[in-house]
Write a structure and sequence with these properties.
elongated, Nuclear Transport Factor 2, Chain: A, seven-stranded mixed β-sheet
């Protein structure tokens, strides 16, 4: 009986250790992803995404499907429009083996154009939001960002 209980205890500890390691891996992955954004390197940031990743910006409403679309239509746009951007985690994340959720702050100066129709304003911006990220096989397969678009737009004078 004692041997069986010890075996169960070791299995439970092993499982917990494995879950803790997976959670650490998820946090390390997102830390690297955010560091690439903060280094203003869209190509490096995209290496953290799965080929079939989905990037959903709730204020836009249309998901970007695939690594290339996320890189070109979200990451490059933000880095181009806010070349001095800083994206930082502002609260302890909620981490699991296959995902992470966290509050963040994004700041910088809009010194680049958002698009051909939306030129730079030259204004500083700072806004907070939340990201929900799902991870599979060491890559981000889903990112959902939720933030105050009205406050963001007011800061830029739109």
């Amino acid at each position: 009986m004692k041997t069986a209980l010890r075996s169960i205890a070791f299995l439970a500890l092993g499982t917990l250790a494995g879950l803790a390691q997976a959670a650490d891996d998820a946090k390390a992955l997102v830390d690297g992803y955010m560091a690439a954004w903060n280094a203003h390197d869209a190509d490096k940031a995209a290496t953290f995404l799965a080929e079939d990743a989905v990037y959903f910006d709730a204020t836009v409403g249309t998901p970007q499907n695939g690594k290339t679309a996320a890189r070109d239509n979200v990451i490059k746009v933000f880095i181009g429009a806010v070349p001095d951007l800083k994206w930082e985690m502002t609260s302890a994340p909620i981490v699991s083996a296959d995902g992470i959720a966290f509050q963040w702050k994004f700041s910088g100066t809009n010194s680049g154009a958002w698009s051909a129709e939306t030129p730079a304003t030259g204004k500083p911006l700072s806004f907070e939001g939340v990201s929900f990220i799902r991870i599979k096989d060491g890559k981000i397969v889903y990112q959902g960002d939720y933030y105050d678009a009205l406050g963001f737009n007011k800061q830029l004078g739109w």
